[in-house]
Amino acid sequence: MLAAFNEVYEYLTSKNLKPKLHVMDNQCSKAVVKQIKKAEANIQLVPPDDHRANAAERAIQTWKDHWT
Known about the structure:
This protein has helices at 2-14, 30-38, 55-67; strands spanning 21-25, 42-46. By secondary structure, it is α+β, with helices and mostly antiparallel strands. The mean pLDDT is 85.
């Protein structure tokens, strides 16, 4: 997971985009949290499976509700 995070982060920074806030569930690994802090970005931990707190999960749920 750390390799994937680094790959995405490097791609974004190569396009002059620097993520400032990472919203992740509280089950993410400590290595990823450490890497985010090393990149001088903020991290917001939300409870897992709480679709109200995580905007990405909420958007997926809205899409599923629309198409089913």
